[in-house]
Amino acid sequence: MPDLNQRASIALQDATLQQALNRTMEHFVQGRLQAFAALPHGEALRDQARRIRAHTIAHLDEHLLALERSAQANGTQVHWAADAAAARKIVLKIARENDVRRIVKSKSMLTEEIELNATLERAGLDVLETDLGEFIVQLAHDHPSHIIAPVVHWRVEDVAKLFHQHLGSPLDADIPQLLATARSALREGFLQADMGVSGANFAVAETGSVVLVTNEGNGRFVTTTPRIHVALVGIERIAPTLRDLGTLLQVLARSATGQALSVYTSIITGPRRSIEEDGPEQVHIILVDNGRTRALAGDLAEILYCIRCGACLNVCPVYHNIGGHAYDSVYPGPIGIVVTPAIGGLAPWRELPQASTLCGACVEACPVRIDIPRMLLKLRAQSVAEGYAPGWLQKGVRLYARAATHPRLFRWAARLARIAQWFAPRSQGWSRRLPGPLAAWTKTRAFPPLAGASFSEQWEKRSHQ
Amino acid sequence: MNDPRSLILDRVREALKRAYTPEAMDAIPAPPAPPPFTQPLADVFARALEAVQGRCHRFESPENARDFFLAEMARRGASRLLCWEPAALPIPDLAHALRARGIELVSAHSPGYERASTDRKAHLQELAQIGIGLTGVAAGLARTGSLVLHADRSRGRLASLLPTIHYAILYEDQIFPDLAAWLAAAGTAARIANSSNTVIITGPSRSADIGQTLTLGAHGPKEVIVLLIENRRHGRRPANGEENETIEP
Asked: CB–CB of B152 and A299 under 8 A?
């Protein structure tokens, strides 16, 4: 497996990907800014959303119990899964007990996280992804590269080729034709399915509801036409009350796609009541931990405030350049490089916290103002403490720390460096290739020349004038 | 400790002793309120709906709306409609007038529908053949041009989901300024709690997944057409949650 730097290099040389990222990211960013500008109390709503998330996470045990109580009261069956394997087992058990053969799925990052599809397919079940992007990903055996735009890396002509192969549409089909082809293929799936599997944007503790937001309408179908609906809910996804839900929904779509609200917001409160016309006969909520309590215990708990809008991906200079696949984690971008090691442990994901310039654009874009750079510094410090940082870096930093805390030594070192720098090759005044361990720095960046006189020398001179 | 529920709850409680949760308060304060709209809510609603590619036709009375809808059905050559139970349609005499013109009104409820999975699927296939849906709504949200629908005894979910075209009947007195105002209104919470499905619809179904280009009609209706009516015939506004049963004299 190539490392993060190698994967990033591959992505940077992928012209198609670069073009798609340039176009789409800018579009998302402008959409978000305009959507908030149109709202007189947009900034106040973000503050409120942050308060709601902070409160919910800090009182998570109470809200989980309240959610369970209200959900059971409305007829929803509640299950608890400590890890991915347990969650998969519960879904499989529900499917088997109910003689399920065909499953339709609405887009869910949590099901990607627990790798649900592979398990279901191995058990001989027919699984159909119904979000158009996820459908393309499934047909092509690809992976989503953006939290809310899974196939941002696909061109129209590539989709046309794929649909031509699998669904028999013409090779030169345009976008409306492609959409119509997918619509009829997936419509058949919705009508024939025995069970619908979804994630949850939120679960409301007050009413025991699962809330699903989609633009295409697949979220509605998956929870309406099959006789069973199973919702996988991360334990942090709770909105305590409907009032809180209102605030969160108002910032979610604006941050995600720049819409005032997504086209369909479904508030699912139990199975079809006996007097009602349509809807599923069973609704299940599976509350999934899978490392979230690990994230909760300590400095990284704030990452659980996240409402998965994807705004941080769109503004991130690193994501903007390398796209989602280079991260090789289910969750890419600024949110991904914190939440992945936070729930999965740092050891397997030690590279990820390096994939950031710490510029802080993510904090500014985040609807709940999560301080991602703060947590990245914590993760990097932990990386050093646990010995994951390369040896030369650790030695180098220790050397620098020694010089920086001894003024005399520092001045001598600086003078030496000023002389030595004339021997390093330059272009346009900047050093492009430093010797020894410093070469790691100039491999991907230029180093500015040191000034003829240091700051303290200039300061001294000035105060004598 | 084998019980995953107590295991997770114990983990949460243990973790919370060490969790750094900046700005966490014990209670959540009231959300910020936006300044009130200076224009009539119906105007704001209509503009917002058009902005998300929905269409809004405005009428002074339910009779005008009924005549328009009958003309639309004739224009489209419709012979069947997927709709709420006729008694729940909020325009008096509409069901009667449609039937008089030979249009069949189909609602999702039919005997045996819920009994066996094969029947259920066959039934859905049948309903999915109907191209036009007609419903009332429980509320309209001005800022976003949204429609709110609750599933209940006579108001199925499928009429606003399966067809390619969804017509919705909305009275001006059902419009709330925005999502927050509707959620805060008396009766809303109970209505949500008592319905298995509440849906907020904001324009026609859309996707931008292919080529990052906005395209309408992904899975749900391609067209959402709202008949927005100014005055009720009987002049009585139903309480929130009671909805608009037709009040036959």
From this structure: no
pLDDT digits (tens, 9 = 90+) for A355-411: 999 999 999 999 999 999 999 999 999 999 999 887 777 888 888 899 999 989 988
Share of chain B above pLDDT 70, in %: 88
State how far the alpha carbon of A165 is from the alpha carbons of A139, A155, A157, B209, in Å.
Answer: 10, 16, 12, 19
Q: What is the mean pLDDT of chain A?
A: 94
Q: Which residue of B has its CA nearest to A80?
A: B5
Report the sign of the C-alpha dihedral through residues A72, A368, B191, A228, in that order: negative
* pLDDT score recorded for residue A427: 78
Residue B110: pLDDT above 60? no
Residue A284: what pLDDT?
A: 98
* Set of chain B residues whose Cβ sits within 8 Å of the Cβ of A207: 189, 192-193
| Sign of the dihedral through C-alpha B225, B230, B235, B236 | positive
Q: Of B21, B121, B176, which to mutate for an interface test with A (greatest number of A Cβ within 10 Å)?
A: B21
Structural domain contains residue A326:
yes
ipTM of the complex: 0.94
- Asked if B20's CB is within 8 angstroms of A301's CB, the reply is yes
- Asked whether residue A323 falls in the same domain as residue A448, the answer is no
Contacts of the segment B66-72: beta carbons below 8 A, 24+ positions apart? B66/B91, B66/B93, B66/B94, B66/B97, B68/B227, B69/B94, B69/B134, B69/B167, B69/B227, B70/B97, B70/B98, B70/B101, B72/B167
CATH number at residue B154: 3.40.50
Question: Residues A209-220: what's their mean pLDDT?
Answer: 97
Inform me whether the pLDDT recorded for B111 exceeds 70: no
One domain for residues A183 and A223: yes
When CB atoms are compared, the residue of A216, A278, A297 closest to B157 is A278
Nearest CA in chain A to B116: A227
Enclosing domain of residue B173: 37-209
Lowest mean pLDDT among A188-192, B114-118, B129-133, B199-203: B114-118
Question: What are the tokens at A35?
Answer: 């959507």
Together in a domain, A315 and A413? no
Q: Which residues of B touch A259 (CB under 8 A)?
A: 52, 202
Backbone angles phi, psi at A105, to 5 degrees: -120, 140
Q: What is the pLDDT of residue A431?
A: 81
- Selected for mutation to probe chain B from A126, A186, A276 (highest B CB count within 10 Å) is A276
Number of separate domains in chain B: 1
Residues A281 and A401 in one domain: no
Find the closest chain B residue to A181 by CA distance: B218
Verify that A193 and A80 share a domain, yes or no. yes
**Domain assignment of residue A418, given as a range:** 392-464
CB contact at 8 A, A153 and A16: yes
A127 lies in some domain: yes
Q: Is the pLDDT of residue A443 over 90?
A: no
Reduce the DSSP state of residue A10 to 3 states and report it: helix
pLDDT in tens, B146-182: 999 999 999 999 999 999 999 999 999 999 999 999 9
Radius of gyration for the alpha carbons in chain A, expressed in angstroms and rounded: 26
Instruction: Count interface pairs A-B at CB distance under 8 A.
Output: 299
* CB-CB under 8 Å, B207 with A215: yes
In a domain, A121, yes or no: yes
Say yes or no: A134 and A234 in one domain: yes
| Pair (A185, A331) in one structural domain | no
* pLDDT class of B113 with cuts at 50, 70, 90: very low
Q: Count other Cβ atoms within 10 Å, centred on residue A26.
A: 12
Band the pLDDT of A432: cuts 50, 70, 90.
confident
Give CA–CA dist A453/A458, Å, rounded.
Answer: 6
